[in-house]
Amino acid sequence: MASDRAADTHRNTAAALLPLVGGASNVTSVAHCMTRLRLGLRDRSLVQEEALRALPAVLGVVEDDTYQIVLGPGTVARVTPEFESLLASVPVTAETLAEQGAALRATHRTRNATPLKLLLRRIANIFVPLIPALIGCGIIAGLGGLLRNLGWAPGLVPALTVLASGFMSLIAVFVGHNTAKEFGGTPILGGAVAAIIVFPGVANVTAFGRQLSPGQGGVLGALAAALLAVYIEKACRRRVPGALDVLVTPTLTVLGSGLVTVFGLMFVAGEVSTAIGDFAHWLLATGGAFAGFVLGGLFLPLVMLGLHQALIPIHTTLIEQQGHTVLLPILAMAGAGQVGAAAAVFFRLRNNTSIRATIKSALPAGFLGVGEPLIYGVSLPLGRPFVTACIGGAFGGGFVGLVNQLGETVGSTAIGPSGWALFPLLAGGQGMGTTIAVYAMGLLAGYAAGFVATYFFGFSKRMLLDLNAETNSRG
């Protein structure tokens, strides 16, 4: 019964969203990430944004190359299929398809679609679908480690290890599949070439005077191998006669890209992956406090620019190589600074019931690491509080970085969650209790620094007068 009620809730949310975005005829594409329903819209002037923001399920709205409705983790994955079902029930005409195609072409020509952002977005499209499996396996790995440390259920621990490690042992295959799909090749061929990297038999191959090892090059090698496979496949499609295409193209694609992978890419990508891991370790071991301060302070601006997507392959490489990424707990402090800043805005704007209501509704999501409602609904429009939120993130990141510098490794076994939602995914070198305590103290440092910086420096006197008087003037 509870599952039926939940399904009805998600169906009702989808039904409420559709008319507010201009109806089915105004929607050209539907996708979702961890927290947002991403819609391609023909005419954004048809969106009833105020009514949309007023829906209980909507945590915020972001306008980018797609129109993004923030629903939160878990919810968005359940609302999206219901939304797509509603769209599918509407008859599609040739005219509608033509209009959708024109709208999609126009969307891709928006001014925000710079070459760098497009490349980073495509890289994100490769890795984002892997995040649910990373989270699930990461939590299982943490549970197995906890049981092992406590000495409980010794017969269950090996099984949990298998469940947690199975996906990671084959993650290169999934990266190759998604890379080929994203760049216009045949997904299964991308996966087939990437599978070479994890095949145990590569240990019998020597390249650059060294014996290869299974998994060498990891996700970066898989990404490069699949890109090469796409290039070869497209070249074959242009040149091979249609009658021979079904036999020749797959063979040449796997043969050509496979040989280059074995005798070149695996070695090069392996060296790059090792360098990334060594650099991350060196950075935090020698200048952890400063590095954490800079990374924690700059992460929110990186998110605003879309440049944070470049970190996804780095996180994944570190998780694959070391079992966790030491960068994510530091970057998560940006969200703590944002929460602290929002709390200070709440106290400073005592007479502005509108902004205070937004903060009250968005703070729970902020604590769980969903920062978009606070960023786009509070700090960024106000200006100064966004800067002071970055200061809070810098202090939180500096604290976690300092502890790393002192020898206590704090990492995450998966990417995606942050804030309180990251606790089940934490991993460290000195025991889970210590790791959790360090991360919690980092959050507290971010909350406190963001609050203090915003309370004292987040507003000019004129801003305070205007913002506190605005609601009163409206009655």
List the helices and strands and how they pair.
Elements (H helix, E strand, L loop, with lengths): L1 H19 L6 E6 L3 E6 L7 H6 L5 E4 L3 E4 L4 H14 L5 H15 L6 H13 L3 H20 L6 H13 L1 H12 L4 H12 L7 E2 L2 E2 L6 H22 L2 H64 L6 H11 L4 H5 L1 H16 L4 H15 L4 H11 L1 H22 L4 E3 L13 E3 L3 H26 L3 H14 L1
Antiparallel strand pairs: 1-2, 2-4, 3-4, 5-6, 7-8
Helix pairs in contact: 1-3, 5-8, 6-7, 8-9, 8-10, 9-10, 9-11, 10-11, 11-12, 11-17, 14-15, 14-16, 14-17, 14-18, 15-16, 16-17, 17-18
Describe the structure.
The protein has 475 residues and is of the alpha+beta class. The chain folds into three domains: 2-113, Glucose permease domain IIB (Gyrase A, domain 2); 129-278, no CATH class; 323-474, no CATH class. 69% of the residues lie in helices and 6% in strands. It has 19 helices and eight strands. The protein has helices at residues 2-20, 49-54, 75-88, 94-108, 115-127, 131-150, 157-169, 171-182, 187-198, 218-239, 242-305, 312-322, 327-331, 333-348, 353-367, 372-382, 384-405, 432-457, 461-474; strands at 27-32, 36-41, 60-63, 67-70, 206-207, 210-211, 410-412, 426-428. The strands form three sheets. The chain has a four-stranded antiparallel sheet, sandwiched between helices. α5 (115-127) packs across α8, α14 (333-348) packs antiparallel against α17 (384-405) and α14 (333-348) runs parallel beside α18. The radius of gyration is 24 Å and the shape is globular. The two termini are 45 Å apart. Mean pLDDT is 86; it is low at 91-98, 100-109 and 471-475.
